[in-house]
Amino acid sequence: MLTEASVRAKGRPRSCIADASIDTAALELFADEGFERFSIEAVAARAGVSKATIYRRFANRDELLAHAMRKFDEDVQQAPSDGDFWDVLTQLLDEIREASPDSLRSRIMIRVLSEGSRHPQLQEMVAERVIRPRHLRLSAYLERGVSQGQLRGDLDIEATIALLVGPMVWLKMLRLTPADGSASTASIVEVLRLGLAPASHL
Predict the structure, then answer these.
(1) Is 95 part of any domain?
(2) The pTM is what?
(3) Residues 184 and 97 in one domain
(4) Which of 4, 50, 91, 119 has the fewest C-beta atoms lying within 10 Å of its C-beta?
(5) What's the per-residue H, E or C state across the chain?
(6) Does residue 3 lie in a domain region?
(7) Residue 34: which CATH number?
(8) How many domains in the chain?
(9) Interior CA angle at 132 toward 114 and 20, to 5°?
(10) CA-CA distance, 14 to 200, in Å (whole number)?
(11) Based on the domain organization, do 51 and 103 belong to the same domain?
């Protein structure tokens, strides 16, 4: 016999599947078509759900896309607490550089770079969901390096992040790899280490 509780329980998996389908469709649509062609109707068609299903969850397309982008928050893992400091730093930077240019996150970032000036809310959304979590992780790791004596005590954390991340983004956007003769991430970190580490660690 089906009770009200059992009907709700049976409905939950379908709801979870719909949620995942909507999130995936929203991210892929934005990456493929851009913000100006991003709509509730187009997401519904791609996800295979009704517009009503989406409107029960979100009031507008901005709210929908912001919710879908929470996935990038969930992807961020804390930096390892053990291992060689410089090796771990290289791994963190490699995550930025080695993500495939054709990956969903990379395609979304390209869209933001090309359309963000026309849609400030889009820039804010991506900064909060994609960039800020990774910025905080790297900042915390560098602060740990300062406290452990691996980095100079007077280190400017924000300037250091710019110096570390800038080359990774540049090489990634140009699709340059060590196989093409470009510098490896480890070699870039080694060059910067000369200015970041205290004299006793050189």
Answers:
(1) yes
(2) 0.73
(3) yes
(4) 4
(5) CCCHHHHHHHHHHHHHHHHHHHHHHHHHHHHHHCCCCCCHHHHHHHHCCCHHHHHCCCCCHHHHHHHHCHHHHHCCCCCCCCCCHHHHHHHHHHHHHHCCCCCHHHHHHHHHHHHCCCCHHHHHHHHHHHHHHHHHHHHHHHHHHHHCCCCCCCCCHHHHHHHHHHHHHHHHHCCCCHHHCCCCHHHHHHHHHHHHCCHHHC
(6) no
(7) 1.10.10.60
(8) 2
(9) 80
(10) 59
(11) no
pLDDT of residue 100: 65
Whether residues 138 and 193 share a domain: the answer is yes
Q: Can you give the residue range of the structural domain that contains 122?
A: 75-201
pLDDT per position as a tens digit, 81-103: 788 999 999 999 988 887 666 78
Of the candidates 76, 97, 190, the one whose C-alpha atom is nearest the C-alpha of residue 139 is 76
Note whether 103 and 47 are same-domain residues: no
Q: For residues 202 and 198, what is the distance between their CA atoms, to the nearest angstrom?
A: 7
Q: Which of 99, 101, 95, 98 is nearest to 173 (CA)?
A: 101
124-149 tens-digit pLDDT: 888 888 888 889 999 999 999 999 99
Task: Confirm whether 190 is domain-assigned.
Answer: yes
Please report whether residue 169 resides in a domain: yes
